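Quarterly update from the structural biology core.
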Amino acid sequence: MTHTIENSLITAILCIIIFIPIYLAVRSARIKKTKKISNELSLIEKDLDLALQAIEQFDSFVLAIDRGKKIIIKMDLKDYSPQLINLKSITDCTLVEKRRGAAINQLQLVLIGKDQQALHTIIFYQQYVDNEGRLKRNIRLAAQWEVMIKAII
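Predicted structure, tokenized:
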């Protein structure tokens, strides 16, 4: 019986020695990523004289909007490069779900210009690329962004 307790104690200590550094490393990486995103958005805000109100982070990008100047910033998280989308030339937007059977392959917000042409697309979810566990959250957030953009234009 004492060998079982000793073995359990040794196993528990080894698990703690292994998992605590991994947890701390992951947590540190997340904090650094959040700080980097915040710093990049602050620089963009200062450079372009914007006041970003709604900021949302997705799997591969961050969306932010300045409602007063009607500008959306989409920042890619691979290289932190911003894409500016001017909403002054947008007349409508539509949320589109592309499906294959019952599964959603892609969820995108299509921004339509004055000539009824799609000027920009914001892809909120892409199958095999984004985390499928966050699909419901992404659908809800995409619908909120559609309502927010329609209220501005």
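The longest strand covers residues 90-100.
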